[in-house]
């Protein structure tokens, strides 16, 4: 069974996730750890649980989600995987990060690319890659069907959605991604977003003011 540990990192209050199971294999998703205290918090948890980091995954590559990429990849000698369309966003962060005062940002480029429908495996777990652009052009989400959990990045939040006013963002594309890719998942799928509390597909279909589906029973 999959276990999920979340951390809230950096000034943007970004959610970083460690996914693991009984084999002690794990993946790190969207490491936003920037300062030493945040890095220590992540490292201490992985050490305490005696986990083995197998992969580093990014849902997308806005600065708040990639601040810890270099650290995690070097610390655990692991590979960084992103969607190919998102590489230009990742490369831009070395210019963008200092504008937010994050002058200690170190660039880490991808080792391989994720594709729609691909299955990422670690331990006894499988994560299906779902391509959900709109907030960012190469945004993906990771779905574990067995446990009905979705690591959704900045697409769907608790009664909100990702912003679309950043370069590469598009509101219509984002809403289409939500309706066509996420709202087709079972209602009891638990969504772990890139910011804020977890939610479920069914709850957002009924109540989200940006994308709720008409005629869904309350």
TrEMBL record:
Protein name: MBL fold metallo-hydrolase
UniProt cofactor(s): Zn(2+)
Keyword Hydrolase: yes
Signal peptide range in chain numbering: none
Domain of life: Bacteria
InterPro entries assigned to the protein according to its UniProt record, in alphabetical order: MBL_Glyoxalase_II, Metallo-B-lactamas, RibonucZ/Hydroxyglut_hydro
Taxonomic lineage: Bacteria, Pseudomonadati, Bacteroidota, Cytophagia, Cytophagales
Key words, A-Z: Hydrolase, Metal-binding, Zinc
Single annotated GO MF: metal ion binding
Residue ranges occupied by any Metallo-beta-lactamase domain in the UniProt entry: 13-195
Pfam families (alphabetical): Lactamase_B
């Amino acid at each position: 069974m999959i276990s999920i540990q979340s951390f809230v990192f950096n000034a943007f209050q970004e959610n970083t996730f460690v996914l693991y199971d009984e084999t002690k294999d794990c993946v790190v998703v969207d490491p936003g750890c920037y300062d030493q205290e945040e890095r220590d918090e992540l490292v201490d948890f992985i050490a305490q649980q005696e986990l083995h980091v197998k992969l580093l995954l990014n849902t997308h590559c806005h600065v708040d989600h990639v601040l810890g990429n270099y650290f995690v990849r070097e610390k655990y000698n692991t590979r960084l995987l992103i969607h190919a369309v998102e590489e230009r966003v990742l490369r831009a962060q070395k210019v963008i990060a200092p504008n937010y005062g994050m002058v200690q940002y170190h660039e880490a480029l991808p080792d391989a690319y994720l594709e729609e429908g691909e299955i990422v495996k670690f331990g006894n777990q499988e994560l299906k890659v779902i391509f959900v652009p709109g907030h960012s052009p190469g945004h993906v989400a990771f779905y574990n069907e067995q446990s009905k959990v979705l690591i959704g990045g900045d697409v769907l939040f608790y009664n909100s959605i990702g912003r679309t006013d950043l370069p590469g963002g598009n509101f219509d594309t984002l809403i289409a991604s939500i309706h066509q890719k996420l709202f087709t998942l079972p209602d009891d799928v638990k969504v772990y977003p890139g910011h804020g509390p977890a939610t479920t597909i069914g709850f957002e279909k009924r109540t989200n003011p940006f994308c709720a589906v008409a005629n869904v029973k309350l």
